[in-house]
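Side project, low priority. Logging it here so it doesn't get lost.
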Amino acid sequence: MYSLYYKRYFIIGNVVVAFSIAVQFILIILFEIYNIKQSSLQVNASFINIVLYYALFAFIINLIREIIKDIEDIEGDRKCGCKTIPIVMGILKTKIILSILIFILIILLVLVLYRLSYLFIVAVYLSIFMILPLLYLLYRTLYATHKFEYSYSSKISKIIMLLGILSMFLFEINK
């Protein structure tokens, strides 16, 4: 459905892919709520907040990666008649959108950092392994001009995704 239909329309394909990743975290919450209702326990609001942060992170970082891939594949998409963000708005405006999304993600991480600042390892991890790579991604994406540079930015975003997943282990360490 994505490659045949959604990808051809302005931003819809990007949002569908990003949402399909984020919804996996929402399913965790729904499963947890269902299990809690079955056992008459109370919902852990802290757990739900953490999972919602991960869902939002997953949505935004995947949206960023999809948009970078659209810039990387602009020539092929143009030949196929796709209406991706870079084709409709141009590369400069697309980079502005990417910058805004990256800043939103950094702000989200700073909020988490502030809320969990009492956990030293979380603060260090978020600062070094999440915020700094996002700043590097911003720099690489803003100054990219060739297809291979956007491909490199896409790989950086994949690494940031992996680092985000690995950060889940921090909550197990700090139990």
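Brief comment: The chain has a mean pLDDT of 89.
Revisit when time allows.
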